[in-house]
Amino acid sequence: MNQNDLPGFVVTHMMKNDFFSQWMCVEVMEVQEGYSKIKMVIRQEMVNGFGIVHGGLPFSLADSAFAFACNNRNNLSVALDVTITFTKPAHVGDVLTAEAKEVHNGKNTGVYLITVTNQKNETVALFKGTCFRTGKSLLPA
Length: 141
What we know:
The protein has helices at residues 6-17, 19-23, 56-71; strands at residues 27-32, 35-41, 77-86, 95-105, 109-117, 123-133. It has a single domain, classed as Thiol Ester Dehydrase, Chain A (Roll), CATH 3.10.129.10. The protein is globular and about 45 Å long. Helix content is 23%, strand content 38%. The chain has three helices and six strands, in the order ααββαββββ. β4 (95-105) and β5 form a beta hairpin. The protein has a six-stranded antiparallel β-sheet, covered by helices on one side.
C-alpha cells in the first residue's frame, strides 16, 4: 500500500462500521493526512421544534470529520475534548460541509479545527477538537 493512499483506506474502513455517519448519509469528499472534508443534506427528521436543524447534526457532522482527520494515519485516536459554536441555523434541504484541518499533530494528542458551512458557503458552526492517540492501529500492518 502506498503511504499516500493510507488516509483513504483508513476512512473507508471507518465508514463501514460508522452506522451513525451512514444514517446521516455522510459523503466523504476528500481525505489527506490530518485532513478531511465531508458533506450531508439536512432531512426533515433532523429538525427540531423550531423548524431548524437540531444542533446535534452539525455537531455530529463536525465530529465525524474530526474523527476521519485524526485517525487517518492509522493511529486509533479518540476525542479528549471538543467545543462547538453555532453561528447560523440550517434548514431542511441545506447541504452542510465539514472541513477538518489539523493544527497540531503530537505523539499523544492532536488538535483540529473544523468549519461547517452550508451550500452558500456561510459558516454554520465552528468546532475545535482535541484527540488522544492510543498507539493502536485501525488497519492491520
